[in-house]
Amino acid sequence: MSANKIVEDHPGLERDNSNTAIINTNNNAYNARLIQINAMENKRKLDEQQNRDINNLKSDVAEIKEMLQKLIGGK
Question: Residue 59 in contact with residue 46, Cβ under 8 Å?
Fold first, then answer.
């Protein structure tokens, strides 16, 4: 098995000589990407929870409004 060749102008990438696949050998960039993916997933989950909370508050306000209207004999 021969050694992998570094991809020109991309020191963090190597070409596997046995199957011509490109291999990322830059562990720092890989780990940074994993952190970025995790942060995006956490933000998505937070956004979904905030949307649920907002919808619950809207429902609660509508229910309170309806009760107040009944209490004062309104519309």
Answer: no
Q: What is this structure's pTM?
A: 0.64
Are 42 and 36 a contacting pair, CB within 8 Å?
A: no
Which amino acid is it at 39?
A
Reported as a single tens digit per residue, the pLDDT across 5-59 is 888 888 889 998 888 899 889 999 999 999 999 999 999 999 999 999 999 999 9
- The ranges assigned to domains in the chain are 5-71
Cα–Cα dist 6/18, whole Å: 14
**Tokens found for residue 34:** 């994993």
Cα–Cα distance measured from residue 66 to residue 33, given in angstroms and rounded to the nearest whole number: 50
